[in-house]
Amino acid sequence: MPAADAEVPVLIVGGGPVGLTARALLERWGVRALLVEKHRELSPFPRSRLVNVRSMEIYRRLGLTAEIAAAAFAPEYGRVRFRDTLHDDDFATAAMVGVRGPVPESPVTGVLTSQDRLEPTLLGAADGPVRFGVELVGLAEDADGVVAALLDRRLGRRTRVRARYVLAADGANSTVRELLAIGTTGPGAVGDFTTVVFDADLDRRRAHQPAGVYFTAHGSFAPLYPEGGWAWFGPTPEDAARADWSGLVARALGAAGVPAEVLRVQHWVMNAFVAERFRHGRILLAGDAAHAIPIIGGLGMNTGIADVHNLCWKLAGVLQGWAGPALLETYETERLPVAHRTLRQAVANTKLLTGVQARRREQLQSGEPASSGAELPWTDRYFAQLGLVLGVAYPEGAVFLDGRPPAPAPSDADTDYVPTAEPGHRMPHMWLTPDRSTLDAPDTWFTLLTPDPAPWEQQAAGPWPLRIENLPEEHAAPCDLSPRGALLVRPDGHIAARWDDRPPSDRALHHAVTTLARKSGP
User: Fold this and answer.
1) CB of 508 within 8 A of CB of 514?
2) Contact yes or no for 46/297 (Cβ under 8 A)
3) Residue 319: Cβ-neighbour burial (10 angstroms; 0-12, 13-18, 19+)
4) Whose CA is closest to 287, among 307, 317, 262, 268?
5) pLDDT digits (tens, 9 = 90+) for 213-236
6) What is the pLDDT of residues 379-435, one digit of tens each?
């Protein structure tokens, strides 16, 4: 094993939203990490734009929701519209559930904001070191850690950092995944696309019929910031080097005399795959490095944020010594099925959307008016994603069933979210006080929620972070608990164990947490 110039508990590779969120979560749970990003600065491109309701729940725990929302669009932009050109009337529209307005199942609302507005907030959410312009070029792993070879291209200097664990959040073209020779499954590259950032006087149209995305027969439009700016994106033309981007955007605008000033052009590949595995020894993949999700539906970045929310408390437990290394095995067990389910939904979204756009272009070329039967691009339930977002369940993994049958994992058809307090599911949102939710209770601890704390208090002592909190009796019945029952909630807000009634023994809680921490057998 080569010598190292420095040592860190965790090395994060990649400074996008997933890597930056992991850095903040690890610090919240008591672990400082070094983050390296090969680009010299945060991304200047808008890129991902939807922070869904589950991600905002995670950011609520980090105290970031107010700052994120302040830079975001107003709720009325939480809608998509489908038109022939931007200046035509809608022939279909749908609200983004959990973004257009609040939902009773959550204490927060998702927001529409550009990635280049989100990342500075995430960067400021932790104090751990960040090194921009530093690229990972090699990895060597042994039983006790990983030595990463890093290259500062601006200075031409190589260094080596030894980490107990490496968290790879370095994107769909992940260097880490390539170095580890981890394969992928799924469609792969589904097309070449281009984003054109431009300025145009479109405020009047936006003010009367706001939307987060306008899908047209000639590509799609998105307002970038509340104060102005636009992006068009669509398939890359065959001769992209000679493309008339201003003319292409003007055709999609459909408004004579509205000039479009092109500011930036970015070509990119829409990928669709899931890594064959999320872990290689002490190296773990997250975000696009683990699963590249097509952008239609806004699922990709949010899935990566949920990845690191699942992973980072486990890393903290292992590094702080109250959990065994086997706890990390549950990361892949829990998140790999979610990635496959999300990919299937996003691919279906993409095929449906591009198919409708192509058919509508054919209709327009033949001279058919919109009233002649333009196909709706989705059903009324197409954007009802709460079942996918809040209904994530882990029937296997870091859960303690103690003879209970595992709760069934959601199917692709489950677009509705039905709250349940079964192990593996996200703890249902209920208000403990006027401004504090049951989702706020776990924070940095395992939390036992119970209407009757007394029988459990003598079992709480142990090396793991655990606290007991009163669950108001009116919340017991919706959770199918007796007044003496209890729910054990993990630091990521998912239910780890439940007891419908009084503790079955004077060591029931101790046994459950010890088993979850993987420091002894089940």
Assistant:
1) no
2) no
3) middle
4) 307
5) 999 888 999 999 998 889 999 889
6) 444 556 788 899 999 998 999 988 788 877 777 766 788 999 999 999 999 999 999
The DSSP result for 441-494, as a single string, is S-TTSEEEEES--HHHHTT--SSS-EEEEEPPHHHHGGGT--TT-EEEE-TTSB
Could you tell me the two tokens for 128?
């751990």
First to last CA, the chain: 36
In this structure, what token pair is assigned to residue 513? 């947490």
Alpha-helical (H) ranges within 114-188 are 115-123, 175-179
Alpha-carbon separation of residue 173 from 46, 297, 366 (angstroms):
19, 21, 41
Rounded to whole angstroms, how far apart are CA atoms 176 and 184? 13
Helix (H) or strand (E) holding 315: helix 300-320
Which two tokens mark 303? 């899935």
The pTM (predicted TM-score) of the whole model is 0.94
Strand segments, DSSP code E, in 14-156 are 33-37, 50-51, 79-83, 92-95, 111-112, 130-132, 134-141, 146-152
Using DSSP bridges, classify how beta strands 130-132 and 33-37 pair: parallel, antiparallel or unpaired: parallel
